[in-house]
Design a protein that fits this description.
This protein is α/β, with parallel strands linked by helices. It contains eleven helices and seven strands.
């Protein structure tokens, strides 16, 4: 019998998980990246939510369910459950990645990295910092679990076809699937052609190096929203992806993992080739790195109209009133004690 609120919540959560995922395929998605790149809007669309989009607070949890076709009775139909972790935009809350990047989740985890294409001077800084943080946390988690590390390596090699991939020795793939989404394409499409070409080739190089998928997205373009949602559904529930691929820098990129190569990015080999550092230098020569905000604390949700919850707000006011009365009494008691005449 649970003795406190935390034990009750744990038992309730375990019970719900059993009810939701009997014979189902559980997956996890971690969403990180630049601020205001369209992450929360896409998530709302994926979840079928029509309420106004609220800014993400630190790290928020959602889940999505999908029934699995089976011969079971309707009441016993198993469901796939996808746990979704949405981390506040920017680089200040990376320590919270420890929660979703646990060994328990890694075999069915996909990381979605959202980048703001409209701010190219922050693009490399954000990308580089997030990649380093993700790799460091995965390394720490896997260092004590060699069996899991071996399993993830096998899954990665199979997913990317590394045994027959000529780029294998020049790649440094992440141990779990990664999808890089370049947001605000509606602004990016108006950049000068040569600048668009540089940004597209640089991001393609990063994607090949990591073994990641790459696509461009805008929350004002229904076709691009549909494409991005297709990747979410694929990684959440295993639905097949379309065969569409777009590598033309004059169009929104759409490049599933394993379908691109260093040779396709730089057909002649060029001076840059597959060198990560040379691409970094070439990009910085055109777009000198601009530091991003490392930590921006969100406004207090208790006083923010975007997070109104009538029942919780009422209880909060009652508690605030009780606390205020206690402070007044203590204040009065101290004043009274100070004013007593001494003998």
């Amino acid at each position: 019998m649970p003795k406190n609120l935390f034990e009750m919540a744990k038992v309730d959560g375990e019970t719900r998980n059993k009810e939701l995922s009997v014979d189902g395929r559980d997956t996890s998605i971690l969403m990180v990246g630049s601020k205001s790149a369209g992450k929360s809007i896409l998530l709302n669309s994926f979840l079928g939510r029509t309420d106004p989009v609220k800014p993400t607070l630190s790290l928020e949890y959602f889940y999505a369910r999908k029934k699995i076709t089976s011969s079971f009775h309707a009441s016993e139909t198993p469901k796939s459950v996808c746990s979704i972790w949405d981390m506040q935009g920017g680089l200040g809350f990376s320590s919270l990645m420890d929660i979703p990047l646990r060994a328990l989740n890694l075999t069915n985890l996909t990381i979605f990295i959202f980048l703001d294409l409209s701010q190219p001077k922050k693009l490399w800084v954000t990308t580089d910092a997030l990649i380093k943080q993700i790799k460091a946390k995965l390394k720490a988690e896997l260092s004590s679990n060699p069996d899991l590390a071996a399993k993830l390596d096998e899954l990665t090699r199979s997913r990317l076809g590394l045994n027959e991939n000529p780029d294998e020795k020049r790649m440094d793939p992440v141990e779990v699937p990664v999808v890089i989404i370049g947001g605000k394409y509606d602004i990016f499409q108006n950049f000068e052609p040569e600048n668009k070409k540089l940004i597209c080739r640089t991001l393609r190089h990063v994607a090949v190096w990591l073994g990641a998928s790459l696509l461009f997205y805008s929350n004002s373009d229904q076709n691009l929203i549909k494409r991005a949602k297709e990747f979410l559904v694929h990684h959440a529930f295993g639905s097949p992806l379309s065969n569409l691929i777009s590598q033309d820098y004059n169009k929104p990129l759409l490049i599933p993992a394993g379908t691109d190569s260093f040779r396709q990015i730089e057909p002649s080999g060029g001076e840059i080739g597959s060198s990560f550092e040379l691409w970094k230098q070439a990009f910085a020569a055109v777009y000198p790195p601009e530091e991003t905000d490392t930590l921006e604390l969100p406004s207090n949700p208790a006083t923010n109209d975007s997070f109104k919850e009538s029942d919780i707000d009422l209880l909060r006011k009652q508690k605030d009133l009780v606390r205020f009365n206690i402070r007044v009494k203590l204040r009065c008691s101290s004043i009274f004690a100070f004013s007593l005449p001494r003998n």
